Amino acid sequence: MTNISFPENADAAAAREALGWLHTARFLTTAAQLQHLPAPGVPEIAFVGRSNAGKSSAINALTQQTRLAFASKTPGRTQHINLFALGRGGAHEASLADLPGYGWAAVPQADKERWQRVMATYLCERESLAGVVLLCDARHGLRELDEALLELIAPRVEQGMPFLVLLTKADKLNSTQQAKALQIARLQTAGGQALLFSALRRKGLNEAALWLRRVAAGGAVVEDTPQ
Ligand SMILES: Nc1nc2c(ncn2[C@@H]2O[C@H](COP(=O)(O)OP(=O)(O)OP(=O)(O)O)[C@@H](O)[C@H]2O)c(=O)[nH]1
Ligand SMILES: [Mg+2]
């Protein structure tokens, strides 16, 4: 597994730089089907998770833009793969991909199955996929569909693709609950990387920004971090 280190107190200057870079995010394209995605080129980092997990809110928080990714109270809102370009001075150095959430009961079975296929193909075969951020509600932790997704990407993770679990909406837990949620997530990801995150309180923002920056830069891999 490729781990990217989280300094105890994320180096402030590096985090500022990473957040400044993320702030350059602009809408690139939306794709209902994989063949509508741009030809693989720059590194792409995918945000995946259950419907309502907080993917769009996390992208907005990380890019410090209020409505770049559409965040909604209506689960299942994101139905396409939305790509955002990153890079200063108009350069396109990397993309963030906001993927449709899974697990929303009200979605018709046929749509669910179609999306599962689209997502599985994207995650397993997209050449330019450089990293995956799996978001899950800190109150619920990783659930069955999240575990299935982890299994799906396991071969790529074993080959070194960086992978991060963001435990979202951490503001809804007290500090004891937060610590427990983090511990469980780390066990479930077999010692993988996990962070407490709150778009609302900007918790975990520096660490997540640094992670994204390093993955986009080619994963400047540092060490296996026993966290
Ligand atoms: N308290 C709290 N609520 C949050 C946070 N992040 C997201 N939410 C709320 O959770 C709901 C879902 O957020 P989204 O960002 O739209 O979730 P999503 O994963 O993009 O959902 P889909 O696109 O439907 O898959 C919204 O009502 C958000 O306001 C957070 O950090 N704290
Ligand atoms: Mg969304």
Bound molecules: guanosine-5'-triphosphate, magnesium ion
Low-pLDDT sequence parts: 220-227
Percent in helix: 25-40%
CATH superfamily: P-loop containing nucleotide triphosphate hydrolases
Indicate the CATH class. Answer: Alpha Beta
The domain count comes to 1
Sheet with the most strands?
Answer: 7 strands, mixed
Structural class: alpha/beta
Global morphology: globular
**What is the count of β-strands?**
7
> DSSP helix count?
6
Question: What are the salient characteristics of this protein?
Answer:
227 residues, alpha/beta, Rossmann fold, 7 strands, 34% helix, globular, binds guanosine-5'-triphosphate, binds magnesium ion
Structure description:
With 227 residues, the protein is of the alpha/beta class. It has a single domain (32-170, 184-216), classed as Rossmann fold. 34% of the residues lie in helices and 19% in strands. It contains 6 helices and 7 strands. Strands 1-3-4-2-5-6-7 form a 7-stranded mixed beta sheet, sandwiched between helices. A hairpin with a 7-residue loop joins strand 3 and strand 4. Helix 1 crosses helix 6. The two termini are 14 Å apart. Magnesium ion binds at residues 55-56, 77-78, 98.
How would you summarize this macromolecular structure in one to three sentences?
This protein has 227 residues and is α/β, with parallel strands linked by helices. The chain is built from six helices and seven strands.
Task: List strands and helices in order, with pairings.
Elements: H1 12-22, E1 26-31, E2 44-49, H2 55-63, E3 81-86, E4 94-98, H3 109-125, E5 129-137, H4 144-158, E6 163-168, H5 175-188, E7 193-196, H6 205-216
Parallel strand pairs: 2-4, 2-5, 5-6, 6-7
Antiparallel strand pairs: 1-3, 3-4
